[in-house]
Amino acid sequence: MRMSQRFGRTLREKPAEAEMPSHELLLRAGMISKLAAGIYSYLPLAWRAIKKIEDIMRKEMDAAGAQEMNMPVVHPSDIWEESGRFYQVGPEMVRFKDRSGRDMVLAMTHEEPVTDLARRFIDSHKQLPVVVYHIQTKFRDEPRSRGGLVRVREFVMKDAYSFHADEKSLDEYYPVQCRAYRRICQSCGVPVVQVQGDVGMMGGTGAHEFTYITDVGEDTVLLCPKCGYAANREAACLDKNLGVPEPAEEEIPSQPTKVATPGRDTIASVCEFLGKDPKTSIKTMVYFAGEEPVMVVLRGDLDVNEKKLANLRKVEKVRLAEPEELKSLGLEQGYMSPVGVQGIFVVADDSLSTERAYVAGANEHGYHLVGVVPGRDFRYDVMADIAAAREGDPCPVCGDGLTVKRGIEVGNTFKLGTRYSVPMKAMYQDEKGEMKPLVMGCYGMGVGRLLACVVEANHDEKGIIWPMTVAPYHVHLVALGTSEEARNAAESVYERLLAEGIEVLYDDRDESAGVKFNDADLLGMPIRVTVSERSLKRGGAEVKLRRLPDGEIVALDELPERLKSIIRSEIERILPGEES
RNA sequence: CGGGGAGUGGCGCAGGUUGGUAGCGCGCAUGGUUUGGGACCAUGAGGCCGCAGGUUCAAGUCCUGUCUCCCCGACCA
Description:
Number of strands: 33
Largest sheet: 9 strands, mixed
Radius of gyration: 30 Å
Structural class: alpha+beta
CATH superfamily of the largest domain: Bira Bifunctional Protein, Domain 2
Strand content: 25-35%
Shape: elongated
CATH topology of the largest domain: BirA Bifunctional Protein, domain 2
């Protein structure tokens, strides 16, 4: 490709709208262009990288036994009504009517059409398991797009769906996809951590996110540097047994005692006043899960994870009760406790022990109760983990301190189970001839978002540094000087490299050396080859890797072989081996 | 949806309080001189100042409305 013919141009200055590096560099390189908020065009160079990323995905999906297909981007609303999501999801799904008045939607994901296909084509256990995938455009009218390609409204996603006869089969296959995901990211030069994700209100046993750790990310994950535990904030757990004072026998009185605690309406102030460890106090919060009030009790030093609570109560989200709502429930803010309350659902966090006594509110202004034993002095409807893990909390696996990091979620894997097959009646006949719902898994990965992460993970102050595996071109050939000799030499090098099947971007423009070098650095092809009077005098062409500071002179005759060998070794440097 | 900011040639910005012929840098076009890290000279093209109303002899500038975009938050299968 000749730069003089290239569609798109480089920008010297940082566009005003760009915040994060990938956004700025892709814009400045003339690789993407915004049409509307969260809606981008990919110009030729970026599109070549996109196609390479897709091919890496195809290779790994094929290796994971998945078959590529394609599904529509416009769906009749019927299938979304069948699954129940037509009413469940909000305005992020675009809905419209076709000319004859039928309700249609724009695909925001493809569980519905793929489940429809499954029920049409899968009849027997003999066909299972089966895995399909497609790379398709989706549209979600996000409340807020941001960060260039990181969060957009229209995006291309690789989506795989697996169908199984039972949970066991899904459990066996699930790790195969996880492995493919790690390999895809690695092949693209994007280091990711596999973190446990929120399984959502459907429950289920498996959900993972593949996250590129970066300060500009919008996801929050908790990591254990010691043992490698990694979880999304929504799903993260902590070890609640560490550092809890041993309960001495005499500390459990036969009944709670009311004590005056004037003005002590926070855990910290009450515990300080009474000389207690916050780990021996009970924090009481009231939330609303829809219309239903829910009282949450947990150990005083912990915070509520609202996502866990929402999942427990099978709602989309919960909200903290307003002060007036507390009053109407007969509760006193700052002195609340589950002791004596009736007619309200009580969730106890499993940090609380029924074997020891705690400090709790007295449901009376200015008073607390000492010696409250969960289960004995108050009832709860369910005990579960609803605590939030925070920076420094003990790792649930090894007990070491957890670290909070930001990251970009490039992909996720999820055990769907029968969430879609049951309502949509996607059934198969088992060996005994019984009809059973298909057990499904889904595996999604954003192509454009991965491209953004490639740039985030591979750039410097001058521009992009493409990994060889996804680089739009392998070689950026720079012709310098106006002499006939140099020009001709560059032209013949270009022709030669093309003939040898090397992907080469050729800067044949009539620009100064500075402009060409700076553009080469910005565009970021992995190998730069310079042909000039100077290089010819030194015996050939200068070959320099974008990621390294210095180049070498290579004789023109040896150039194609030398470049091929660099390309090969650069690809091998990145590509994962058989094991990973 | 809440808070903040911005819309003036392709990009980055000035002008606005004090209304009076729309400006700068980069880029682009033509010619010439240059050519190993964002060259120089000359000439030139390109903008109904987001849009719609209003005030005024006169609006980029003042008033009202509206749309769009960016950032923080809410939200995120």
